[in-house]
Design goal:
Elements (H helix, E strand, L loop, with lengths): L1 E3 L6 H9 L5 H8 L12 E3 L7 H10 L20 H6 L2
Antiparallel strand pairs: 1-2
Helix pairs in contact: 1-3
């Protein structure tokens, strides 16, 4: 499976997006010959091995289109973009 990196995504975010579990992080790094802490570029296409770590979570993130993006933005904040803007507004 291939995935395209979105703004502020880390390899951990990609693992969560694809597998619902960060256990997939080392496999993605190996498949793409990059470090687990590599800086990713927006639009970069990564190969993700076809494995299942937790079927329930994997189905959940795919069903709801969860695409975490937690990279440090340089302003002193880490922005958790796991939830939609609607969710954020409802629970502010």
């Amino acid at each position: 499976m291939k995935v395209t990196v979105l703004m502020r995504q880390t390899l951990s975010d990609i693992a969560l997006e694809i597998y619902g579990d960060i256990a997939g992080l080392p496999g993605i790094a190996r498949a793409n010959n990059i470090a687990m802490t590599a800086d990713l570029q927006v639009g970069q296409v990564l190969e993700c091995p076809d494995v299942v770590y937790d079927a329930y979570l994997q189905n959940y993130v795919r069903k709801y289109g969860i695409k975490p993006a937690t990279e440090y933005d340089g302003t002193g904040e880490i922005r958790q973009r796991i939830f939609t803007e609607q969710f954020t507004l409802e629970f502010s």
